[in-house]
């Protein structure tokens, strides 16, 4: 029973550690920081899809990206 409790506690703590946004910064609130992280991950995923399509030759080779970059 102790082992089951310890394992479930470890899983919960690992889940909390993975979903936290990191250290709070004075520049951004937690919500703003999460928006920045989500926007960055969305852009990275779009680039990964672009690379995957290039690997499978779904699009012609180019050094330009089809994604909006500021």
Can you give a write-up of this model?
The chain has 70 residues and is an all-alpha fold. The mean pLDDT is 80. It is built from two helices and no strands. It is elongated. It has helices spanning 2-19, 30-55. Helices cover 63% and strands 0% of the residues. The relative contact order is 0.07. It has a domain at 29-70.
Index terms:
single chain; 70 residues; mainly alpha
Query: Pairing-aware structural class of the strands and helices?
Result: mainly alpha
Largest sheet: none
* Poorly predicted spans: none
Shape: elongated
Could you give the order of the helices and strands?
HH
Oligomer: single chain
Radius of gyration: 19 Å
What is the β-strand count?
0
Please count the helical segments.
Answer: 2
Q: For the residues shown, what is the average pLDDT?
A: 80
Share of β-strand residues: under 5%
- Provide the helix percentage: 55-70%
The termini sit apart by 54 Å
């Amino acid at each position: 029973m102790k082992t089951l409790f310890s394992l479930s506690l470890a899983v919960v703590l690992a889940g909390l550690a993975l979903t936290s946004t990191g250290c709070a910064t004075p520049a951004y609130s937690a919500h703003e920081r999460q928006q920045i992280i989500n926007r960055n991950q969305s852009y990275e995923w779009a680039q990964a899809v672009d690379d995957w399509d290039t690997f499978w030759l779904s699009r012609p080779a180019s050094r330009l990206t089809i994604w909006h970059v500021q």
